[in-house]
Known about the structure:
With about 350 residues, this protein is of the alpha/beta class. Helices cover about 30% and strands about 25% of the residues. A seven-stranded mixed β-sheet has the order 10-9-8-11-12-13-14, sandwiched between helices. Strands 1-4-5-6-7 form a five-stranded parallel β-sheet, with helices on both faces. A two-stranded antiparallel ribbon has the order 2-3. A hairpin with a 2-residue loop joins strand 9 and strand 10. The model is unreliable at about 335-345 (pLDDT under 50). It binds ribose-5-phosphate.
Amino acid sequence: MIQPPLLFSGSSNRELAEKIAKRMQTRVGNALVDRFKNDECRIEIRENVRGAEVFVLQSICNSPSGSVNDSLMELLLMIDALRRASANRITAVVPYYGYAKQDKKTKGREPISAKLVANMLEVAGAERLVTLDLHAAQIQGFFNIPVDNLTAAPTLCNYLKNQGLQGDHVVVVSPDAGGVPRAETFAKRLKSTLAVIIKRRPEPDVSEVTHIVGDVTGKTAVVVDDMISTGGTLVKAAEALMKRGATDVYTLATHGIFAGDAVRVLNESAIDRVIVTNSLPNTELELGPKFRVLSVAQILADAIKRITANRSVSELFARDEEAAAAQTAALQQPTLELPELTPAR
Ligand code: R5P
């Protein structure tokens, strides 16, 4: 009999945690996530976790409840508290892994922030990481614990297919050279052609298009990226694609960071539709009619169930997605006799 896993959540994406819990037929564990008067994070796990398989959901991002650094600190303190409360195994579920862009030194005297965050998670007591579309897959190597780097590609592709956006009237576009493998995956799934934008960054957070490789004339361009931060990359890409003869431009990214006035910039751009997931706490209502927010709750819930049952996680992304989903559904559902919400001893 598999023991039911416990799911706790920090405050950066509590709504996603609730959705995952619902799909797991459980509830989010009882914990205090607050601030002391001096703004330090205050965490208290308010139920017994001794010997339990525990998952902690937190995206490392800005949210209405705090800054990106607050969310990182909440995650670390929550893991520390669970470890000291004798949880058996703690998995950090980090749909958006912040600080990922600094994954190497591009010039002297810079930090490798993605590696430091990995060290911090391990020191806190995380024994496994579940994440989604890491900015660079090599970040997995910064960890000495198992990393499950899931992908939202099937969810995003299904959306496009349902909109009739597949076949040779569509061209999938990578907004930079680094994104070509990702765009190729989409092009294959959609049976579309591929184009690549050559982008230059004269300074951080500023992008310029220098060339477009591939034919986009008369086609719907679907630009695929891992994240949208200032929106500059996609706005510049859309302008260049329309100039080259694309008929309309859709943009997709797993992570909608929307820094600064990105939402306004994207709303005023040549882009027809911006599609992201809820890996960060975004809602269509707040973003506006040009935006679509797709849920990754099911993928994360399925991964958690499979990890708990020691089943393959990569099967989830097998070509035959329906079969994988059926297999997940068939996993033995633990009898959920959750403890009452009483203060922990
Ligand atoms: C770059 O390597 C990333 O994949 C994204 O293209 C980039 O982070 C997007 O940033 P922004 O929206 O600020 O142009």
